[in-house]
């Protein structure tokens, strides 16, 4: 009975660990992409403002 219990704990720990590592890597990737997307959006805004300024 105890062996089954320990096996269940081990399986639960391994699945939780893999889930956390997957979530962590996705979060890190998303964080990097978020920084890059913020830079791209700021660059586009500056570009649009400069284009509008030149038209006048």
From TrEMBL:
Entry's transmembrane regions: 31-50
Keywords linked to the UniProt accession:
Membrane, Transmembrane, Transmembrane helix
| Domain of life from the UniProt record | Bacteria
Instruction: Return the protein name.
Output: Lipoprotein
Q: What is the lineage of its organism?
A: Bacteria, Pseudomonadati, Bacteroidota, Sphingobacteriia, Sphingobacteriales
